[in-house]
Structures are given as structure tokens and as C-alpha cells.
Amino acid sequence: MTHILQSLQTLSTIHYPNGSACINANAQSCGECIQVAATCGWCTDENFLNQGQSKSARCDDIESLKSKNCTEAKIESPHGSIKIDKNKSVTNRKKDVAEKLKPEQITQIQPQKLTLTLRSGEPQTFSLKFKRAEDYPIDLYYLMDLSFSMKDDLENVKNLGTDLMREMQEITSDFRIGFGSFVEKTVMPYISTTPARLINPCTGNQNCTSPFSYKNVLKLTDKGDEFNRLVSQQQISGNLDSPEGGFDAIMQVAVCEDQIGWRNVTRLLVFSTDAGFHFAGDGKLGGIVLPNDGKCHLEDNMYTMSHYYDYPSIAHLVQKLSDHNIQTIFAVTEEFQPVYKELKNLIPKSAVGTLSSNSSNVIKLIIDAYNSLSSEVILENSRLPEGVSITYKSICKNGVVGTGENGRKCSNISIGDEVSFEISVEAQKCPSHGKPETIKIKPLGFTEEVEIVLKFICECECSKGGEANSEKCHEGNGTFECGACKCNEGRIGHLCECSKDDVRTEDLDANCRKDNGTDICSNNGDCVCGTCECKKRDNPNEIYSGKFCECDNFSCDRSNNQLCGGHGRCECKVCICDANYTGSACDCSLDTSTCLAKNGQICNGRGDCECGVCKCTKPKFQGPTCEICPTCPGVCTEHKDCVQCLAFEAGEKKDTCKQNCSDYLLIKVKDRDKLPQPTDQSFPLSHCKERDANDCWFYFTYAIRNNTKEVYVVETLECPAGPDIIPIVAGVVAGIVLIGLALLLIWKLLMIIHDRREFAKFEKEKMNAKWDTGENPIYKSAVTTVVNPKYEGK
């Protein structure tokens, strides 16, 4: 049966997303524990574990272990460290000082070597200082395209040596210059391979030298006239296609340190051309398929393998230029500026300058580019071991701080300026081999570097004193180290008391039941080797315990949504209350201070203090200390008469004031704002507002202080003001006048309406009248008509 093995596997694979990382890791040894997180510790106390707890419970946060009564001396939690092995100060060097230092005697970066001891999850941070040394030596190699289109440029470069030497004296007194040239691979289709064209590749009457890939004309030297002499002897060559084989030349200049003569100083490579470039893959056009091997192939200062190896890739060039600390200046014509600016973005510590058509501005271009490159420092590190990360923070000139990628660099640095970097190195895990690793950090373009040796804390100190085959581990079946048994192969159990092969599940299960009617380990754990190992919960503070995992510290009664009311601890499902607390949930306080009234009495003498709360004996009293009595006679009304007679010599007790009101202490104030406020007093206080027989209001406060009735009263009454006669009379007169005018207007309006109605009626009757059309019998017409009897109508 494999019940035990399955139980062990289950314990080691359970994931608790919300719990402590230390507990969730299920570490079985101190070494495993300290690799989980920097906050984890391992308790080495032999008696630390409660019954039912697994060995992994020894691994927890430091504070959690202390709270579980593991003393600080018994907690194993090693920390990393930083040791500076070499710390030579940066050089303060002046150019005009008679004593000259060798390049290897100049220091620009500090410290030079450190040893970091790393613990997983714990970063180690150190400071690195960089200072640009004055009068620092410079090696400059001028690499020129000698294809036919650069003919006029060659004339201007012939005097470059002495002129550049003179200008560079302003920057450094130790300057060397070299010269090399390139054209193209000597195979078709890059050049013409006809015999005549191999001798003179130029057309017409031009006299050109045979084509070549790369030639080292002059090794780095401090003799400017030698540079002029050798460059003057150079001849232009030619090729067929527009892109040139400059990448082949750059690779050889970078890797052939001895032939070029590079020193461990500032290295500048000036690449001058008026054309583009071939790169990896273009060699296939000439039948060249072997990748560039990045090695030196100069024989008699000529590159001899151009026909055998392809052009290098940009990434390959970047690697070699960085490895050899070479800063590149591309001096190219205006036409190819966009191409080389893109190339500059891919090559760290490189610059692009615009070359005039005949290279007449090359000296100014070089000096400007050098100033631009040297004004910026960029840190880079070598390949990091697996699981190790590094972050940078820069503190640059004028206190400018950079983080992230900007934390690697500082700009606008002048000669003599000092900047610093804070570098943090962190390991997330121990390397598989556990051996020290070495990384290097250096500023790009500089030969100096910082060597960092990384050591890893993979085991606890207590494991070194482990007792092999200890009797504490059941007849020597394990090594006793760090307070616990580390079982030998094939053994299991807290004390390695069981063998994986010789146990029977039925026998072991019986030892894990409290009685026959209960579950194995109360269903809160697993039976391992006849012993209950209790389960872990998401919350690391919630623990099952007991021989049969029957107890826990989280199932007790709660009050105010807090376990044991926040005033006790839960042990085996029962609250153990703090002092002055009682109850099943420790929610009953025995402290009576919360029941103390302002007069010093508990519950004002009107109730009992139960669990810190007043229980008033009479229902009519209310409030936190039984101070409120809503149904009691009004305090203000009760004391009104005495206040009135004392303050204003009026009221019902005017004549008996001295006899009935002698126990009052009366204090007058000018206005209501001067009356004391309830919040300002340490005793009960009532504000009152009462009215006298003349309907005047008076204001006062009443309180009992030191057994004395203390009354503050406003010294002036608020009486209603009498009527003002003039406005009333004026209002009545104005009202009568206005009413009269209104009546006249209404009468006038009615008359107008009546007249208009009568006129309309008249007009209507006039239009409807019908006159008699018969003749008047008295009327005689003035006209007499006579008919002629003879008229026949003709």
C-alpha cells in the first residue's frame, strides 16, 4: 500500500495562495527554508513543534516564530554581506603636471573588486564611483574607404596626422593615431575579376591600385608625420557595386589588437565612407556562405580571408566592439546619414558625423564626436548567472537621479566630473552547483571594469554541526541538524522511525484515531507513520494541533467579528481571556471605568455596571451612565422662578427669594455666547430658555458642581418690541386712498363698458330698421305726362 507515500506527496504539493510564503513552501530543512524568502527563518529549538505539527512548521516569518515562543537565539536566518576586496581611489590627474602616469596607473572607477554573499530574495546594494580622468590617453584609428568615389577625400586626409595631433593636444598629451583602408571582397560580383581590371579597376586614364578587402597601413603611433607620409603613398582603388566591405575591416580592426597596437586606454575608431555597407548574408552573392568567425586574419597587414568568410552581422560587430572597448565614429556624407544613424542606434557608444564631400571637416567632426561620446558613461554587465538579477540607479551631475534603463547612464559629464551609481544584485535561488560565480561591470568604451564575485547562501550554519546517524533519529536512521531529524534514504516520520517498505496502513491508522467512532486525525490531518500531521490552512495564523489534530485556534466564539472579542486567545476551541475580561467570547469587560459618570459615581448611582455597560435599575433612566431621564420634570421649569428672582428680582418667588433660593450660585454674562457649553464641562449641564409674565425671554444654564447649584444667566431680557404708530397710520391712510382709487377706476371701467354696449345696440337697431315704401297721398308730382294720340310709335 502506498497510503503513506501519497500522504507525504500531498503535503509537499499543497498550495496556499493566501498564506505565508514561508509556510506554504513546505520546507523540510533549514537550507530549503532560507531559500524561500529573505523574511523566512528556521526554528532550531528541539521542543518548538506542538503535537501534530509537521516539520515544515519550523519555517515561518521571523516575527511569527517569535510569537510562537521561539527565541531569537534559536532562529536561523542568515543574511548576505558585501566585502570590498580592492578599493583604489579614482585618479586626480592634471594635464600640465610634469609627472606623467602610465595608462595602467590611472583609475576612473571605484571600487575595482567586491565579493557579494547573496541570500535568495535579499538584494545587496553597493555604490560605484566614476570620474573622468584629465589627460587620459587616446588611441585613434582612422579607417577609410578607398573606393574611387573617395579620391578627393584622400587628398585632404594626407595631412590629417599632424593636424589632428595638434588639435588633440588640447584634450590629451598622450595621443596615438593609426590608419587603415578598405574597398571590397575580391570576388565577383563585388569587383571585376578580369586580369586587366584586377591590376587597375578604374576606367579611362585613372591610375588605381588593385582592389583589396582591408589593409592595415599604419599601426597606432605617436608620430603624426609618419601618418602623413604613409597616407600620401596610398592610391584609390575601385569596385563594381555601391555598398562597400567596411564591416570586414571593422571586425579586423577590433579583434587584431596586437597588429593594430591598441592600448588599454580610450579607443576610437573613425570609419570614413561615402557609401553603404554589406552585412551578413550578402556574401552569398559571391558564393561565400561561411559565417564570419570573428577572429584576426591579418597577414602582412592584409585581410586574407575575405573570399572565405561572409561579412559579419551587426550584432556580431556590436559584441566585438564592446568586448574590445572600441568607440566608433561614423564619418559619412549627407546622403547616407539616415542609414548610419540607424546603425548608431544599434551600436552602443557610437556617433555619426556629417562628412563634407571632400573630407575637409574631418578634424572638427572627430573632436565633436569624441566630446559627445566621452560626455556620457553607460554601464554594462557581463552575463548573469541563472536566477540573479541586477538593477541600477544613477546619481549624475547636479543631483539628477535615473532609474530603470536610465539608471545605467549619466550624460553631460565633463572632464574631472564625478558621478556615482547604486547597484543592487539579487539572487532568486541558489545555483544548482552552489559554487561562486563572477560577473563584471564596466563603462562602455572604457577598459576598466569592476569584478564582482558572487557567493550564495544555500545552507544554514547549524547544518554544519549536524550529527550523522544520531540516536535522536530513531536508532541512527537520520542526521540531527538544526533541531530536527533529516532522515536517511528510505526512512520517514518525525524521528525517522518508519521505513517506507515495512509499515502497514491499517496498523498506523488505528494510532491516528481518538476512538473508534472518529475520523483519522479528526479529518484535519494526514496519518504519517502512525502520527497525525495536521493540515495547514490558507491563513498561516490558523493552526490545527493536538495528537489527533482535534484542536485548533480559530473555532472559538467571536464578538464584534473578532475571535474571542479581540481580548483573548483561542486554545483548542476555547477562549482564554485576557485579564479583566470574561465570557465565552471574552466580550465581557470587568473594567468599570466605562460606567463611571462625570460626577464620579458608577452609572450615576442609578444602575449596575455589567460587562462595562450600565444597566439602569429604573426604566425611566437612560444613557451610557443612566444620566438621561426623558419623563422627569423639566430641569429648566423647576429652577425658573429662582433664577428669575435672583437675576431680575421678578417672578413668583420675588418676595421669598432669599429663603427659597439661597443655595444657588448665580453668575451673569452679557450675551448668550458667553454661556458655558456642555462639551466644555466635566459635569452635566442644561441649557434653558424661559418666558416671564411680560412675555420676555431669559436664558440660563443649570448644573450641579461640588454640591452647589451653579447658574449662568444672560443679564438682559429679550422682550418683544411695541407697535410703531406712524407706520400703522400711514399704512391705513395709504390703504384707504388706494382702495378709493381702485373703486373709482372700477366704476369708470364699468361705465365705459356700459356705454360701449349701448352704442353697439343702437348701431345694430339702425342697421335692422325697415322703412315704408308707399306714396304719400298728399304728395303731388311736379311732372305731367301727355300722350300724343297721333303717335304710332314709329
Automatic annotation (TrEMBL):
It is a single-pass type I membrane protein. One of its GO terms (cellular component) is lamellipodium. Residues 748-794 form the Integrin beta subunit cytoplasmic domain. GO terms for biological process: cell adhesion mediated by integrin; cell migration; cell-cell adhesion; integrin-mediated signaling pathway; muscle organ development. It is found in: Cell membrane; Cell projection, Invadopodium membrane; Cell projection, Lamellipodium; Cell projection, Ruffle membrane. Signal peptide: none annotated. Disulfide bonds join 30-40, 33-70, 43-59, 202-208, 256-296, 430-688, 458-462, 473-485, 482-521, 487-496, 498-512, 527-532, 529-564, 534-549, 551-556, 570-575, 572-603, 577-586, 588-595, 609-614, 611-657, 616-626, 629-632, 636-645, 642-719, 661-696. Keywords: Calcium, Cell adhesion, Cell junction, Cell membrane, Cell projection, Disulfide bond, EGF-like domain, Glycoprotein, Integrin, Magnesium, Membrane, Metal-binding, Myogenesis, Phosphoprotein, Receptor, Repeat, Signal, Transmembrane, Transmembrane helix. This is Integrin beta. It comes from Myripristis murdjan (pinecone soldierfish).
